[in-house]
Amino acid sequence: MKANKLTRRKFITSTSATAAATMLSAPLFARSRAGVGSELALNGGKAVRTADWLSWPVWNQEAEAPMMSLLRSGNWYRGDGNKCRGFEHEYAELIGAKRVIATASGTTALITALHTLGVDAGDEVIVSPFTFIATYNVVFNQKALPVFADTDPETFTINPHKIEEKINERTTAILPVHICGLPADMNRILAIGEKHSLPVIEDACQAWLAEYDGKMCGTLGDLGCFSFQNSKHIPSGEGGAISGNNDALMDRCFAYHNCGRPHGSSMKGMGENPIRGSNKRMTEVQAGLLLSQMVRVRSDADRRLENALYLDSKLKEIPGIVPYKLSDGATRSAYHLYPFRYKKEHFDGLPRHKFLAALSAEGIPCGEGYGQQYFDGLIEEAISSRGYTRLYTKERLNRYREELHNLPDNDQLTLEAVWFFQNMLLAERKDMDDIINAVQKIYENRGKLL
Ligand SMILES: Cc1ncc(COP(=O)(O)O)c(C=O)c1O
């Protein structure tokens, strides 16, 4: 494994004498073009920023010849080419996993992992509630129940202290999510998994090159799952991968994702179709795109880290802005999103949606994070279905409904979260100043928005 050496800690120590010290001693308004005192853009004033941000994804011109040759060859199916295999090899090396299987998407990677680790109809899987909806959906896809353990609002990830109380005789797996690229508290989660003999599947769909304890996210649990959908750091329109170190388990994952055909030495002599399967294969075209994107992954990750640490140092100085915290043992976030909590009480009660509108008007794209998705209807639709009412007792389903009302920290986070997007972190230091200046400008003018 070629380890990426620029961890958060190393960045801080290696640069603290110079850059970090400069950062902290520099005035908050590094370039106060449209700073304190000037009219908010939302109220007709000049925006802090009018320049565009980097458009994503970024096409690599050098990939044109190999992509054209792939298209002309007609070898678009993985059985006829070597792109999927090549990508699996490169990605395994990048993240330090023994093996990687390319899949059609992150969702299909998760479904394959859950199925292979034995998550079955009537089971329960412990999940983080603060996540993209796919993490819930894949559990329902197995006809199992996603049981939410509350979120640690400081780290945005699952609170490991809330997991054990959710374990019962039907629990079959723990599915932590490295949301925004922030590693979940894996030491504690793995210890709980071991104590209760539960496999741990990492949803690393937003966490390429994130590190925990010096190891890459996706290589710590029994299986890791990644997404390469178009917004992701290694984009191919759609795409995904499963990582793992256990050959027998990975052989079974491969077989499942390839219509149940036996795969590898651990399945030798098992006959034509010894296990159930599905088609969750990646195409050669997806893998060709991914290979073309691999050239920039490490340098992009370092750039995002540097800019994120700069934002940390400045944003935390603004009252009411609380940047994410890394969980115990986490050494590096991937910064798919740069999240912080907006405490409106420090902005004289200015509602979050107005803060977001003001930021956007200043030329700073931003989002409000995940909402209380468990009340959106999807869960009720699933658990009131014929299948679920056969698989679970009425008492269990009613208790499950009640438990959705007992996620106080997640509920609070859904009201306070704000995030910036990964492409913004690929800009220059001066562009980070635009972000900081815009937030500070809104803070200084908060009374004018009420
Ligand atoms: C946390 C998380 N899990 C799962 C997925 C599903 O990945 P895909 O969209 O590739 O199916 C995503 C995609 O955004 C994600 O962010």
Please tag this protein with its features.
450 residues; alpha/beta; Aspartate Aminotransferase, domain 1; Aspartate Aminotransferase, domain 2; 2 domains; four-stranded mixed beta sheet; three-stranded parallel beta sheet; 15 helices; 13 strands; globular; disordered N terminus; binds pyridoxal-5'-phosphate
Quick description:
The protein is an alpha/beta fold and 450 residues long. Helix content is 37%, strand content 12%.
How can the largest sheet be summarized? 4 strands, mixed
Report strand order across the widest sheet: 1-9-8-5
User: Which ligands occur here?
Assistant: pyridoxal-5'-phosphate
Average of the residue pLDDT scores: 93
First and last CA, distance: 54 Å
How would you describe what is shown here?
The chain has 450 residues and is α/β, with parallel strands linked by helices. It has two domains: 8-57 and 296-370 and 412-449, Aspartate Aminotransferase, domain 1; 61-295, Aspartate Aminotransferase, domain 2. The chain contains 15 helices and 13 strands. The longest helix has 19 residues, at 297-315. The chain is globular, with a radius of gyration of 23 Å. The model is unreliable at 1-27 and 30-34 (pLDDT under 50). Pyridoxal-5'-phosphate binds next to helix 4 and helix 5.
